[in-house]
């Protein structure tokens, strides 16, 4: 009688293909207990207990900044420290419904069997909202960030969900993405482009990663909106006859981010402020089908809350007379501009 030879069990594989930076082969990775391994060479990447793939282990100053930020319990959606993320992730379901409308994807619902990439996701509130949406079933998501801290929190939340969607996560650098070409139907990034030194190269990589007819969606503060904020504060300061070092520093920072060279901006965490014309030109250069712009919030918000919210939350300035006068001036500026010039979502459509 011949002995029974047991066949080896098939190794678990990643949900997406990645480019190996050692042998340059494009393939799924094999998932072991503690690492994700290239199927063609000896290259392996560590896995966290929640199976986050660690592609990037370099600790730049920007990388350290985000590790510290999310480890402290910072909430990017509330712009403050919070004790836990459970309610934040639950609330993200509602926030993402509004974003789907803004992106124009609500008209395509239900969206089945699609692949999504959340770039520079932080604690992953957008992915959490999309994964929970019952009108986006049987889809595959990838979320990555420079910091594993937010990804671990997202993993803890998602593992308790009853969903037909699948999520894979990694630590990697948006300026050196590891994905195969023609991988995703939708790429999303909220308030992350301004952190990149070479955002043009990143945008081109997004084009390569998108499937035909895919779409890239980004939310960005644009230069005109923040330029008008700085100008309003300067004028308000002069009107009230006060001298605020904080306002002067804010004004100089915004001016520097608009006019500084890439080499000068490289050392900053918040590097760029963009103009619509830049994004339109970039889209044409990369051969996206077209780009369009939509305001994240309505005109009334910019009339009544934008200045006070930015001063209080982003810049920790609580001078009531200054805020009131700056807001009056900002209202006048808003009348002569369109909301799409201020803070917007923009969409890049792939050919």
Question: What would your notes on this structure say?
Answer:
- By secondary structure, this protein is α/β, with parallel strands linked by helices.
- The chain has 2 domains: 12-190, 3-Layer(aba) Sandwich (Rossmann fold); 223-278 and 287-349, no CATH class.
- The chain is built from 12 helices and 14 strands.
- It has helices spanning 61-71, 86-103, 125-132, 148-158, 199-209, 223-240, 245-259, 262-265, 276-286, 299-304, 306-314, 320-335; strands at residues 12-19, 26-31, 35-37, 44-46, 53-54, 74-75, 80-81, 115-118, 140-145, 166-171, 184-190, 210-221, 290-295, 343-349.
- It has an 8-stranded mixed sheet with strand order 5-10-9-8-11-12-14-13, with helices on both faces. A 4-stranded antiparallel sheet has the order 1-2-3-4, with no helix packed on it.
- It is globular.
- The protein starts with 11 loop residues before the first strand and ends with a strand.
How many distinct domains?
Answer: 2
Tell me the CATH topology of the largest domain: Rossmann fold
Terminal Cα span: 61 Å
Helix percentage range: 25-40%
Number of helices: 12
Low-confidence stretches: 1-9
Order of helices and strands: EEEEEHEEHEHEHEEHEHHHHEHHHE
Radius of gyration: 22 Å
CATH architecture of the largest domain: 3-Layer(aba) Sandwich
CATH class of the largest domain: Alpha Beta
**Cα shape:** globular
Strand content: 15-25%
